[in-house]
């Protein structure tokens, strides 16, 4: 089982428009960050895409991903779902819509914003189906668990995927660590974790919080993601403790 980090940046990416690299060294390729999204893949090469970032087409091309077997969304913020139209080509060779899963609020808002994806229009077929995560337990060869995480005034869904005796957790966009999160993520092989910046933030985890979650759930390896322009790759590598990996676009890790 492995995770492919398609994107590792915050909602504006790095650099920001205007060629604003902040504190990140522009000569370090791993500082160039697109919006967050991951692929989890099992030994049978079945793939789940988590979030359809606004950079999805470029991410799929860069990583040679020609198909996925299901899509999960953490929440409905634009940087996590507005690349959904790039999934159209994955419907071409399918006899049925590509399955998608999210919590109740996210399902409602996806259906409202992208009705043509889920209903079909003007003779075009339905591209995707959509179910609430509470309605399923096994998807595309993966079993999974999930937990709602505080994300400022709303929530984001954290996912734990299991296959081939291994587990990968995706916990992005949270602002507080809860007991339910610890229980869901405990003992995971790989924890991909929100880490916006070093200073605390009202809707995201900062560096100390990300490290604390990894420690409290006893993750074997933690990978930092959703990094903003203050988080220079080389500086972070020198700063983080053992067992913590600084994520970057295109990173692949096997559990």
TrEMBL record:
GO molecular function: hydrolase activity
Keyword annotations of the record: Hydrolase
Domain of life: Bacteria
Species this chain originates from: Qipengyuania gaetbuli
Name of protein: MBL fold metallo-hydrolase
Family matches, as Pfam families: Lactamase_B_2
Metallo-beta-lactamase domain segment(s): 34-226
InterPro entries named among the record's database cross-references: Metallo-B-lactamas (IPR001279), RibonucZ/Hydroxyglut_hydro (IPR036866)
């Amino acid at each position: 089982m492995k995770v492919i980090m398609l994107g590792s940046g915050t909602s504006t990416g790095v650099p920001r428009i205007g060629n604003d690299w902040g504190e990140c060294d522009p000569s370090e390729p791993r500082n160039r960050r697109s919006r967050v999204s991951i692929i989890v893949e099992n030994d049978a090469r079945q793939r789940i895409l988590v979030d359809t970032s606004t950079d999805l087409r470029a991410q799929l091309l860069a990583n040679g991903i020609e198909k996925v077997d299901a899509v999960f969304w953490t929440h409905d913020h634009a940087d996590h779902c507005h690349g959904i139209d790039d999934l159209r080509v994955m419907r071409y060779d399918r006899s049925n819509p590509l399955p998608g899963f999210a919590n109740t609020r996210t399902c409602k808002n996806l259906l409202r914003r992208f009705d043509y994806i889920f209903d079909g229009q003007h003779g075009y077929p339905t591209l995707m189906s959509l179910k609430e995560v509470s309605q399923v337990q096994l998807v595309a060869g993966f079993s999974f668990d999930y937990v709602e995480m505080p994300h400022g005034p709303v929530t984001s869904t954290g996912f734990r995927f299991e296959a081939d005796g291994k587990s990968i957790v995706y916990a992005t966009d949270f602002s507080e660590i809860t007991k339910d999160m610890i229980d869901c993520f405990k003992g995971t092989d790989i924890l991909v974790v929100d880490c916006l910046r070093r200073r605390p933030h009202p809707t995201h985890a900062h560096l100390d919080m990300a490290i604390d979650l990894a420690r409290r759930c006893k993750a074997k390896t933690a990978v930092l993601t959703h990094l903003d322009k203050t988080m220079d790759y080389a500086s972070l590598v020198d700063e983080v403790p053992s067992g913590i990996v600084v994520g970057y676009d295109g990173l692949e890790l096997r559990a």
